[in-house]
Write the structure tokens for this entry.
Amino acid sequence: TGHKQMFNPTEESQTFLQLTTLCQDRTLVGMKLLDKISSVPHGELSCTTELLILAHHCFTLTCHMEGIIRVLQAAQMLTDNHLAPSEEYGLVSGTLKTALLDYIKRCRPGDSEKHNMIALCFSMCREIGENHEAAARIQLKLIESQPWEDSLKDGHQLKQLLLKALTLMLDAAESYAKDSCVRQAQHCQRLTKLITLQIHFLNTGQNTMLINLGRHKLMDCILALPRFYQASIVAEAYDFVPDWAEILYQ
């Protein structure tokens, strides 16, 4: 007819599945397809991908979990080996975005920059917020890892950690807000106020510790603060509801 035939992967897969009905054991067909992958030339990614898809169809029809796991592991290796070097994760289908991010977090647990890059590819603002919040909490944990008195001896380092935590927490609040995660955004905003107040105290020569407080220390801390707005910031940051009448009386 002179018209160019269009390749339709769905139709091709259906045709293949119809052929497999001639076989007594579709699992064996899937295993043979996986074995063939090793003989495919290195650059023929489309052929390798097609073999994986067809093998997955075979294993799915027979509920062969071992085969399905082998296919998924091979697909993960392909993703990491061919997309990671060129940072082309955006080529992956959007329906796989959560699975891809979880996989990268497992394979590269300390690479927060890579996590954020993938999340940005798919506009996963909530996940970006979670990454920023986790990074901010790491800064606070670094401060908590030594006694407060020791941290005060190196005031410059302490302020640097607080400023980094503040920046990350602000970014987290913004990312959460973009994804309409109101509760998480508000929580991060309350923590930014707490960190800002802590920095203000240090800049004005006040050594009162406001961050990383245990519940048993909250009341004493709030009573020691000279201003009501300061007490309110601390209480909100820790989701603490004190007896305000008693505090105001004190």
